[in-house]
Design a protein that fits this description.
about 65% helix, elongated, mainly alpha, two-stranded antiparallel ribbon, Bromodomain-like, 6 helices
């Protein structure tokens, strides 16, 4: 890997996370591909990372701790993406997460019956691909890349801090 400063690595990770979030919303709202529940969960680590990196740039306190939190966030991102990929490839069965709708939208018994009659987006269905790869498989690659980069930053923190 390149020998950059910690700040430069975090800026690159910030840009990757921001691009990922913007791309996900573009694919959903502009191109019209509806995400499944796991797809929505896979966005959470990117949003959390953006918040933590902004906090780091604003305060410059506990930078090493924030990097450690980012490592755990991208372990979670990788695991969720790997699980979702396993569902797409029929290695795993769909879990209850895949069939839940947003419970805050359920107001009445009629609304509950209406939602139960609607077919939810299956976690097994791949509705959008880039270069023949599902967004989940791309997320695995991105999460793994960021995780490895963060491990390098954490391990060599004192050397590359400045």
């Amino acid at each position: 890997m390149f020998n950059l400063k910690t700040e430069s690595y975090l800026k690159i990770i910030f840009i990757i996370c921001l691009t990922s979030i913007i791309s996900a919303y573009f694919i959903e709202y502009i191109l019209g591909h509806q995400p499944c529940n796991l797809c929505l969960i896979e966005r959470v680590p990117y949003g959390l990372s953006l918040i933590l990196i902004i906090i780091n740039f604003l305060s410059r306190k506990n930078e090493k701790f924030i990097i450690l939190l980012l490592i755990f966030i991208f372990i979670f991102s990788f695991l969720i993406s790997f699980y979702h990929f396993g569902i797409e490839q029929d290695f795993f069965k769909e879990s209850a997460i895949c069939s839940f709708k947003n419970s805050s939208e359920i107001i009445s018994k009629d609304e509950l019956l209406k939602q139960l009659s609607e077919k939810a987006i299956s976690c097994r269905d791949v509705t959008f691909k880039i270069f023949g790869l599902s967004l989940t498989s791309i997320n695995i690659i991105i999460s793994l890349f960021i995780f490895i980069t963060l491990i390098k930053i954490f391990k060599n923190y004192e050397k590359i801090k400045q």
